[in-house]
Amino acid sequence: MSHLNGAYYGPSVPPPKSYHRPSRGGRDGCCCGCLSCFCGCIFDCILGLICKILTTILIIVAILGFLFWFIVRPNVLKFHVTDASLTRFDYTTNNTLHYDLALNVSIRNPNRRVGVYYDHIEAHALYQDVLFGNQTLGPFFQHHKNTTFVNPLFKGQRVTPLAGNQVEVFDKEKGSGVYTIDLKLFMVVRFKFLLFKSASVKPKIRCALHVPLKSRNATTTISPDAAFQPTECGWDYGKKWWIH
């Protein structure tokens, strides 16, 4: 039995092989990865198509806008108060303002190819932001390259409460014979180009006037140095100036 206790010099015995069935997780991961890649490709394609469509629309709109501007060459309407006659402007102790004010307003349409429908014009007269008179002017159509005159007239009396500092301003202007009066125009207009008419828009115009008080015969001013100066009106884009 001594040969059983000796060293063994034969070939090494390999370890037994371990057999196991591969799980399906690897194939599922591959499928999920492919699906994600496919979905990403579709999303990129859709996003790229949307960007191209939007870019095309913007280019078309820009071209049409440029062509419209090049053909029509639109210009803003211009308003001026060319003359003003104030023959009465008295403020009594019972907060009543007696007034007689006549204005001459020019409206210039400088456009070559655009006419204007004035469907409604409402003229407001204010003193220190307090409304004292209003008048509605009749509708009319203004052709291109045309100047039209309108003549709002404010005459009568109205309770016009003024604060203490406003009364002080009135007394000061009474001494000088020149009053600061605002004319504000609320309009509803439409524009006509060839056979096309636009929707109604509502521009607002403000004219800051310095009107001298005239004598009753309306030929001379009470202050010999005072004279009304033609005044350009401006477009009012804010609501804080407007009482409507």
From TrEMBL:
Keywords: Membrane, Transmembrane, Transmembrane helix. It holds the Pfam family LEA_2. It is found in: Membrane. One of its GO terms (cellular component) is plasma membrane. It is a single-pass membrane protein. The keyword Nucleotide-binding does not apply. One of its GO terms (biological process) is defense response to other organism. Coiled coil: none annotated. It comes from Glycine max. InterPro entries: LEA_2 (IPR004864), NDR1-like (IPR044839). The chain crosses the membrane at residues 53-72. Its main location: membrane. This is Late embryogenesis abundant protein LEA-2 subgroup domain-containing protein. The keyword Membrane applies. Residues 105-204 form the Late embryogenesis abundant protein LEA-2 subgroup domain.
